Amino acid sequence: MMTVIFQDKIIYMPYMPPFARSEKMEDYTSVCKPVEWEHKHIKSLDGTKIALCVGNIPNPLLEVTMTGRKKHVVICYFQGNGSALPPRLPLLSNTLKAINAQNASPGGETTYTLVALSYRGYWTSSGRASQRGIEQDAQALLQWISGTFSAPSSDLDLILWGQSIGAGVAATAAATYLKDKASPDPPVTGLVLETPFSGIKSMLIALYPQKWLPYRYLWPFLWNHWDSIAALRSIAAGSQKPQVLILPATRDEVVPPGEADKLERVSREVGLPTLRKDIIGALHTEATTRREGQDAVARFVSNVSNGKNLR
Known about the structure:
Layout: H1 2-5, H2 7-11, H3 26-29, E1 36-43, E2 49-56, H4 60-65, E3 70-78, H5 89-102, E4 110-118, H6 131-149, E5 154-163, H7 165-178, E6 188-194, H8 200-207, H9 228-236, E7 243-247, H10 258-269, E8 274-276, H11 291-305
Parallel strand pairs: 3-4, 3-5, 5-6, 6-7, 7-8
Antiparallel strand pairs: 1-2, 2-4
């Protein structure tokens, strides 16, 4: 009973490690150059104040040399269930630098911005974390991006990237955003699922396989589900089919290896263009701290933004 009642505190850990909520962005940005980061606050759909980190690599020459219609790709990052955004900024900066390096050809007219969401209850965001609240935060983020970065002279694309429980947030956010929209604008063109699991129910069964333990039977009483399989099916039913990158870590000590297999199988079955890249030897939080993981995300973003299909 206590596990059900306190599930939000068990699943979401903004208080770990200690002092995570008092982290300062300025303590990390010096090692992020040439990526520049801004700390912003917006309102969620229910009015809760939520924090964002917005990063890009300034390119003053782009406006001067641009001859045609410009493309702007915004990568939306959804974190795992612990810690805060500032310690993640060096990792995100390295990935953004790798993306820009992939697209450093002369005459390139695509700009990349990375926007990381701090869920309610995390870091400097108000409120308490729950699936319902975080879903509202994610939709508010997508609305803010559309209103902030849309411009008559450029085409705006969205790529959603989530790590661990953030992969469930990303998949669910994409499904909600694309649902019942004949032509979503801006479009979601890519979905990165890093060290993902298929859902809370599946994780309970995988972590507690003993039938005599009560935990595997608690899922009907949960209000946190993060069902990525249902989200992928919903996405595939829409008019827009983003490409999917599944990025498991082969030594993941948290998520069983079968979880990535399930997601890959369903993603391919429902007709989503799908790529899988296993990061050999990586633990749960190491997939994109390693160069091969960063390069995999960078190649995927580059190919998607340049219209290359995985098939």
